[in-house]
TrEMBL record:
Belongs to the transferase hexapeptide repeat family. Residues 293-430 form the Mannose-1-phosphate guanyltransferase C-terminal domain. It holds the Pfam family NTP_transferase. It comes from Elysia chlorotica (Eastern emerald elysia). Residues 3-200 form the Nucleotidyl transferase domain. It comes from the Eukaryota. CDD domains: M1P_guanylylT_A_like_N. PANTHER family: SUGAR-1-PHOSPHATE GUANYL TRANSFERASE. This is Uncharacterized protein. InterPro entries: GMPPB_C, Mannose-1P_guanyltransferase, NTP_transferase_dom, Nucleotide-diphossugar_trans.
Length: 431
């Protein structure tokens, strides 16, 4: 029996995803028509013997999360539960804290998946790899190749190329270590809990010593640093490297992080491409009296799209969206309840929930992805601002409930929710 854990973080996380994460938890943001973690759950549901998914985070349970969990549970016929940390416990603190729930039913192994990644997750292959190549390992990290420049933003892995044993692990190194990076998808056996326990006890002791040394300081807070915080990457992987306990399973399939809105548009494109193989029925088709479809497009069945509209490639039209006459949309996510009025043109953008774009208006962004034609090329992660303090070109994000008037141009801008715009904007954050 196998289980899976999805680490969803909490309200202070997802800051680079604002303003979209102001409306709903980032893990529920829809990409290619479904919430980000729906894609994780779907991947888990295809692993034989995977019986339970535990979603661990420090969000207060809320209606959107509860509804999502019960719907997914029904759809995939798999047990899914949300476990709430009382505070941010780090990427391994929650796993240790909820160890009894994880170990109930004696799972042979369990996956741990960061919620803020997307990909064509080779979960069954990871199980097979453990069985065949490293049955004594307590952990396997899914790894992928990045460019030299990109690698330093990730956990970097040095492996034994023959056995795939991890010899050295450095999280976001300051100098170049390796182009093989950690994808934030892991497979563990229950033996990992002995390493977690050692780290937990050591942290407790350090915390005790720290408090003991500082308790004479007026106003000293005995709660800092939180004694239950464990970081999977720094506290567990670094000491486990080179002990024959930790291996890497390299993949060349699509994988990316989803940290920014630009990355969501990138993920949208790749999940739509995957639908060609896995769910062709989810992709819109050309037909008599239908809008013209170019490439991969997802249209929610409740959306109303005028037959003269032209959509694609790489477009997602959400629930109850209205797309008017002569509208052109490409490389864009249009969220629930939005209205695109006649002849507007939306390129490389996200249009927020219940926003409206006026007639003949142009909303346009600049993709971060330098090479959209190269299959699964890794996304560049640019800084939001240039060295002289200007906003770097990015996709355009229209927050929720924004009114964009007719006959204006909104270029490379981020519009916060509930704005009533009254002109053209270029390279601006509209507060
Ligand atoms: P950044 O570049 O700083 O975002 O670091 P990172 O890419 O290594 O991401 P981070 O370690 O912050 O998060 C990885 C995943 O774990 C994300 O899906 C987070 O939502 C989740 N996560 C991070 N911290 C916590 C935590 O304290 N508790 C839980 N349950 N999840 C967490």
């Amino acid at each position: 029996m196998l289980k899976a854990i999805i680490l969803v973080g909490g309200p202070m996380k997802g800051t680079r995803f604002r303003p979209l994460s102001l409306e709903l938890p980032k893990p529920l943001f829809p990409v290619a028509g479904f919430p980000i973690i729906y894609h994780h759950i779907e991947a888990c549901s295809q692993v034989p013997g995977l019986r339970e998914i535990l979603v661990i985070g420090f969000y207060q349970p809320n209606e959107a999360l509860n509804r999502f969990i019960s719907q997914s549970q029904q759809e995939f016929q798999i047990q899914i539960r949300y476990l709430q940390e009382y505070t941010a416990l780090g990427t391994a603190g929650g796993i240790y804290h909820f160890r009894d729930q994880i170990l109930t039913g004696s799972p042979e192994m369990f996956f741990v998946m960061n919620a803020d990644v997307c990909g064509d997750f080779p979960l069954c292959d990871m199980v097979q790899f453990h069985k065949e190549k490293c049955p004594d390992a307590s952990g396997i990290i899914l790894g992928t190749e990045a460019t030299r420049g990109q690698s330093q933003n990730f956990g970097c892995i040095v492996e034994n190329k023959d056995t795939h044993e991890i010899l050295h692990y450095v999280e976001k190194p300051e100098t170049f270590v390796s182009t093989l990076i950690n994808c934030g998808i892991y497979l563990f056996t229950p033996e990992i809990f002995s390493t977690l326990e050692v780290t937990f006890k050591k942290n407790l002791e350090d915390n005790y010593n720290y408090c003991d040394q500082n308790c004479h300081i007026p106003g000293f807070d005995f709660q800092t640093p939180s004694k239950e915080v464990i970081r999977l990457e720094q506290d567990i992987f670094i000491p486990l490297a080179s002990t024959k306990q930790l291996f890497v399973f390299p993949t060349s399939r699509f994988w990316s992080q989803i940290k920014s809105a630009g990355a969501a548009v990138y993920a949208n494109r790749h999940y739509l491409t995957i639908y060609q193989r896995t769910h062709p029925e989810r992709l819109a088709k050309n037909g008599e009296g239908q809008p013209r479809i170019i490439g991969d497009v997802f249209i929610h069945p409740t959306a109303s799209v005028h037959p003269t509209a032209v959509l694609g490639p790489n477009v997602t039209i959400g629930r109850n969206v209205t797309v008017g006459e002569g509208v052109r949309v490409r490389e864009t996510i249009v969220l629930e309840g939005a209205t695109l009025q006649a002849h507007c043109c939306i390129l490389h953008s996200i249009v927020g929930w219940h926003s409206s774009v006026g007639v003949w208006t142009r909303v346009e962004g600049t993709p971060n992805d330098p090479n959209p034609n190269k299959p699964f090329a890794k996304l560049e992660i640019p800084c939001m601002f240039s060295s002289d303090g200007r906003l770097n070109p990015s996709i355009t994000v229209i927050g929720s409930n924004v009114q964009v008037p007719s006959e204006v141009i909104i270029l490379n801008s981020i519009v916060l929710p509930h704005k009533d715009l009254n002109g053209c904007y270029k390279n601006q954050i509209i507060l």
